[in-house]
Amino acid sequence: MCGIVAHCGEASAVPSLLGGLERLEYRGYDSAGIAWLHGAGHRLRVARAAGRLSALLDVLPADAADDVAVGIGHTRWATHGEPTAANAHPHRDCTGTVAVVHNGTIDNADALAERLSAAGHRIGTEVDTELIAHLIEEQLDGASPGTGDGLDRLAEAVAAAVGQLRGAWALAVTAEGVPGVVLTRHRSPLLVGTTPTALTAASDTLGLCPRTATVRELGDGDTVTLAPGRTLRWRGPGGRETEPPAPLRLSVRHHTVELDGAPDHTSKEIAEQPAVVARILDAVAGRLATGRLLGDLGIPGDRPVRLLACGSSAHAASVTARMISRLAGLPAHVVPASEHSPAGDELTVAFSQSGETADLLAAHADGGPGPWLAVTNNPHSTLARRSDGVFDLGCGPELAVAATKSFTAQVVAGAALALALAAARDRRAVAEWERVLLGIPDRLAATDAMARPVAEELAKAFAHQPGWVFISRGAGVPYAQEGALKLKELAYRWTEALPAGELKHGPIALVTAGVPVVSVTAAPADRLAVNARELAARGARIITVGGAGQDAVLPAVLPTREPPWGPLESVVALQHLAREVTVELGHDVDRPRNLAKSVTVE
Ligand code: F6R
User: Which residues form the SIS domain (predicted)?
Assistant: First the structure.
């Protein structure tokens, strides 16, 4: 989950690297660092800092931006070793002349560390990346890479070094006296971008500079060099020079990252949900009742469906699986991507806002004959590029770490997909539910306005409660799970989320006087109310979302008859509740501890 950037071009490497790292900070923000080549002698300089990118800016020397044409950078989410400045990338070899940034994890790090230490290398950290720098040093065999055709020799050394690794890596390497960057990868994405004045690289498209016109993706085992004058050399897995792959045009819309008056990105993104849904409904208009959406997405309408996802996206996938089986009569089941097994010839629908989640990419790499549809907010992502069809959520960047608008967008995309599948199988209810779908933006906006102040009051009353229970029934259960996940990840409260009827089979033992129980109204509401009363009788404080309740009501505007996608609007109220509790407790809403936006390690 870390982010890589690299730059080789005219003299603007440091600002380009810092801009890329800022856009990639959502991938990890434990620490950050850059390495660049300074002055006519291309002296290697490195700056690193623990914490956010702002901490790195504080330690950069004043002359860092002068005349620098070549550099690499990294923002880190710690896997090996603590998030300290010493463990931050770039890492260097014993001579201090080779600098490496790395995404991924090295499985044979312990054995390599032992061998390198025995050979006399001074290993200064527990970070697997440092070992790669020493392996490259070993391949260079004491000779400075800055002699002769240094970049070619560095590329050969990198290729030989990674031959000893097991695991996953995307690497950018530079070395003193060698004006250029070497890139290579294995099971971790890496892209080369071309701007009018430079070659750049990044681990995802957001890290590339806004002036990037085209991108090329490295394949596993490729070794690529970026040299001045936008000179690109591409070698395939055997080291043989090949033509670079055909470039893809990049149509990324560079959205504003400003708060526009909102207190934080989470709040801004919660409020954007009506507009996000309206855009999706507009994009699919006229293509549901005819089933045409399926043809446009390039997917079959008659196969069983396997839905793969993680976290919040898995909750949206659960809502979708239920809709597909109920509306279209097709078998549909959700598999957490980290638990996948080899696919058959069913249709796989992969839900991933980032499109870079390693567990999903691993599932894709395991192959299988069936087609893949990516439902993603990043149509340029690795998942999108590898899938047969792409449903572009078009939410704009979600900069807060917790998924809000991308979750709601995934549910609406899932509903559109289920309705199109139902239409293709001649099911009748499509037109009726399409009308209810069209009312979602107004109901979300009304819920946003009503729930926000109530959530603030509830947070004052309940924020310090350490344990919370979330219940619902039927189609409401994934929303209860989503509300519980939001509270857990933002406010660091322990939560339990389950179908209400399951409580009496054990978890009710957790319910004592004062425990907040959030009851997400869903059909059958009368049965849910009975379960809530059983908890109230044991002293629980019931917060009812979207219905009449006993202790407190958190408003959500729901349609009169429950649609197949369940009480979607209640998620806005739940998002507000989690955010307000977080604010009340004084935590950082946009950047919760231990997390990163894009989970790029398995
Ligand atoms: C929670 C959250 C995570 C992601 C999960 C999958 O707020 O954001 O649970 O949903 O890591 O990420 P994507 O959707 O990028 O595959």
Answer: 294-427, 454-592
- Domain limits of the chain? 3-256, 261-438, 445-602
Torsions phi, psi of 415, nearest 5? Answer: -65, -40
Q: Is residue 161 a contact partner of residue 135, using CB atoms and an 8 Å limit?
A: yes
pTM of the shown model: 0.78
Q: Whole-angstrom Cα distance, residue 43 to residue 92?
A: 14
Q: How far apart are CA 178 and CA 163, in angstroms?
A: 22
Q: Whose CA is nearest to atom 14 of ligand 1?
A: 352
For ligand 1, pick from 599, 600, 602 the residue to mutate: most ligand atoms within 8 Å of CB.
Answer: 599
Pairwise CA distance, residues 419 & 575, whole Å: 27
In CATH, what class is 445-602? Answer: alpha beta
75 lines ligand 1 (CB under 6 A): no
Reply yes or no on domain 3-256 having CATH 2.40.10.10. no
Q: How far is CA 67 from CA 9, 14, 226, 360, 602, in A?
A: 11, 9, 18, 41, 39
Same fold: 3-256 with 261-438:
no
Q: Is the CB of 381 under 6 A from ligand 1?
A: no
What is the chain's mean pLDDT, rounded? 91
pLDDT digit string (tens) for 542-580?
A: 999 998 777 799 999 999 999 999 999 999 999 999 999
Return the active site residues.
2, 597
| Residue pLDDT, tens place only, 331-374 | 999 999 999 988 889 999 999 998 989 899 999 988 888 999 99
